[in-house]
Write a structure and sequence with these properties.
The protein has eight helices and 15 strands. By secondary structure, it is an alpha/beta fold. The longest helix has 17 residues, at about 265-280. The relative contact order is 0.09.
Length: about 300
């Protein structure tokens, strides 16, 4: 059954969420209209409703269309404002005041030394002396725009955002090859980048996919592998489907035995095989005309 675009009644730049007109799924259908194109997707795994339709714009939408980039540029400029650390975030050093905090950070670095990579070696880290956290700065085009802290002593929440500008953090060593590995936190993203030079570790800074994530993937990725924590498998599958529908990028969902930052031997080998597969295929078209994707989740040990 085709989706009747006229019944969606969606304005330029708007998003809607409703019951799926194809499968009837409760509140599983989303659609957005951008530049006259309607992109729609149903999050229900058993439903194949997804696509992009060139619908066009009304005269009223056309009249306001050309001021939209100016508004977006203003928002982007606001997000690019330099971030200022709170006073309780210090740079570890050898002064009498923060020497003990240097020890905290050094111990934290040692926690993430693995067989395949010394993940946090030469990574800039600061210390939140108030909440006892290792703080990762987040840069955009060389400008400090945000920071996120990981607890040092079991405090909650495990991760704490200090600003509101950054929605993701990406790491890549060497020439980027267009392969993106989606993970939840920055340590996992750095691990990916260090173990596989050229591959981008993309930290969602959470477990939800946002418009900023999709925009970045659409611009820079040519193949995506979603590798969230093992206990977020359903979200991994939904995210894979959403990326394919919105970004039109070949996407693979995999299930690891543990978070990739722990560098489990089987997980490293397993993810490495799919990265090699991604490098070979990229956006290669399949005989049925679709991108190289799968509706089945791959797990460590699958052949």
């Amino acid at each position: 059954m085709l989706i009747d675009m006229d019944k969606l009644d969606i304005a330029e730049g708007a998003n809607i969420r409703s019951d799926c007109p194809r499968c009837g799924g409760k509140n599983t259908f989303t659609a957005t209209k951008r530049d006259g194109k309607i992109i729609y997707n149903c999050y229900k795994l058993s439903c194949d409703a997804k696509g992009k339709v060139n619908y066009g714009m009304t005269a009223e939408e056309m009249s306001s269309y050309f001021i939209k980039p100016l508004i977006e540029t203003g928002n982007l400029n606001k997000r690019m404002e330099p971030f200022v650390y709170p006073e309780h975030i210090v740079v570890p050093g050898n002064t009498w005041y923060n020497k003990r905090y240097t020890r905290y950070i050094n111990r934290f670095r040692m926690r993430w030394q693995g067989i395949y990579a010394e993940t946090l070696q030469n990574i800039e880290l600061l210390c939140d002396v108030k909440d006892k956290r290792a703080v990762f700065p987040i840069y955009q085009d060389g400008v400090l725009v945000d920071a996120i802290g990981r607890e040092l002593d079991g405090a909650t929440p495990k991760w704490l955002r200090y600003g509101k500008a950054a929605e993701y953090a990406r790491y890549c060593y060497g020439q980027p090859n267009g392969v993106f590995i989606l993970v939840e936190d920055v340590i996992s993203a750095i691990t990916v980048a260090k173990v596989w030079p050229g591959v981008t570790g993309f930290a969602l800074l959470g477990t939800n996919l946002t418009d900023a994530h999709k925009e970045c993937l659409s611009d820079d990725a040519r193949y995506v592998i979603v590798a969230l924590d093992p206990d977020a498998m359903r979200k991994t599958l939904v995210m894979r489907k959403e990326i394919e529908a919105w970004c039109d990028i070949p996407t693979r969902a995999i299930r690891l035995r543990d978070d990739i930052k722990y560098q489990d031997d089987e997980d490293i080998n397993f993810l490495g095989r799919w990265i090699n597969e991604a490098k070979r295929h990229g956006k290669q078209e399949q005989p049925n005309g679709e991108g190289f994707t799968t509706t089945q989740v791959q797990t460590t040990g699958d052949t």
